[in-house]
Amino acid sequence: MADDRVPPLLNRSRVAVAGKGAGGAGISAHLNRIAAGVFSEYSIVVFIGVYFLAASLWLPQIASQRNLANLLVSMLPLLVVGMGQTVVLITGGIDLSLPSLVSAVSVVAAWAMVGIGGVASPTVQIVVGVAAALGVGVAVGLFNGLAITRLKMPPFMVTLSSMMVLSGLALWSTGSQNISRLPESFVEVGYGKLAGIPYAVLTAVVVGLLLHVLLSRTLLGAWLYAVGHNPTASLISGVPVSRVIVSAYVISGLCGAIGSLLYTARLESGSPVLGRELLLDVVGACVIGGTSLFGGRGKIVWTVLGVLLFAMLDNTLTLIGLEYYTVMTVKGTVILLAAALDVLRHRLAGGA
Questions:
Q1: How many CA atoms lie within 13 A of 92 on its CB side?
Q2: Helices assigned H by DSSP within 151-198
Q3: Angle, nearest 10°, between helix axes 155-174 and 122-150?
Q4: Which residues pair with 194 in a beta bridge?
Q5: Are 259 and 109 a contacting pair, CB within 8 Å?
Q6: From its phi and psi, is residue 120 left (phi > 0), alpha (psi between -120 and 50) or beta?
Q7: Coil vs helix vs strand at 253
Q8: d(CA 68, CA 82)
Q9: How far, in Å, are 169, 172, 272, 274, 305 from residue 176 at the CA level?
């Protein structure tokens, strides 16, 4: 009869392996807890607090009331544009056309207002200009969405092409010149206040609340996240994937148009190069806030925090007096680090 007892040496080896397995599991669990803290959706709040404290100790003028007010107002147009980009990123796409859309909308809105200046009241000028701006935003978003869903083209290529076309048209149609003499009541939107609250703040808050409700309380919001997680599974489950994607790009176009109106009001003229350097800031702020480049993850409040941090970084570098190329290098590095963290977070979450 065979002896079923385990030899002592082999038994000790098994115990050692089991111990290593238990230790490995403990280390893994500990690393997961650390990762959960580092990648917590609101860890950026802590980082913003630490950054602001350190920066204000180094540059006290950063914490001045005047600088903070300027920082808040200057970040609002970027915030509105960034919220539209967030919706697209949630679906797993990207909208590179936003910077040129901002420029094109600025030109169209200014043309519409100035063109009827001699025959219409300022109120009518503003209504026509805003309607034209929103129409362009919807049209560009609709084109991008349909090209992606009907022609099965990559979002990167479609929106990159749109960016180039819109930029070229804006420059050609204006001869690279600004369009001035906008109605004073429109310019007031960029600097005026209602009950002590800047119009730009009210606009950004309304847009943010509407998109927050859309993403968190509506069926379309649930579909946007589902498409970002797995478009194939969503289609099998009955989600109208194509319509959802088109809706995301239309929303992005609308937000780009609203952001452009805020920029134009602050500039007091329509500019064909208004959004020339906006792409880095828009995508960077979204990614820094925590919205994933892989889709299926993002919140409006994260974008608010990301834009705030990005605006603080830009403000700090400006106050230091760094050269333009240095500022761009620093901002690009920060965005690259944020993208790397997004990749790591995706892998830890079990992504491919």
A1: 21
A2: 155-174, 184-191
A3: 150
A4: 197
A5: no
A6: beta
A7: helix
A8: 20
A9: 10, 7, 6, 11, 34
Residue with tokens 């007892």: 5
SS3 296: coil
What pTM was estimated for this model as a whole?
Answer: 0.86
Instruction: Give the CA-trace dihedral at 97, 101, 103, 107, to 10 degrees.
Output: 150
pLDDT in tens, 24-48: 555 555 555 554 555 566 678 888 9
User: Which of 256, 243, 248 lies closest to 214, judged by CA?
Assistant: 248
- 94 vs 21: CA distance, rounded Å: 42
Amino acid at 131: A
Distance separating alpha carbons of residues 282 and 267, to the nearest angstrom? 19
Structure tokens at 269: 């003229």
Q: Which of 211, 216, 262 is nearest to 86 (CA)?
A: 211
**Sequential DSSP letters for 126-164:** HHHHHHHHHHHHHHHHHHHHHHHHHS---HHHHHHHHHH
- The C-alpha atoms of residue 222 and residue 168 are separated, in whole angstroms, by 37
Cβ atoms of 84 and 256 within 8 Å: the answer is: yes
CA nearest neighbour of 284 among 329, 342, 335, 327: 335
| Contact (Cβ atoms closer than 8 angstroms) between residue 81 and residue 255 | yes
* pLDDT per position as a tens digit, 78-103: 999 999 999 999 999 999 999 999 99
Report helix angle 65-90 to 199-217, nearest 10.
30
Which pair of structure tokens corresponds to residue 57? Answer: 């100790």
Running DSSP on this structure, what letter comes out for residue 120? S
Residue 197: exposure state from Cβ atoms within 10 A (0-12, 13-18, ≥19) = exposed
DSSP assigned state of 273: T
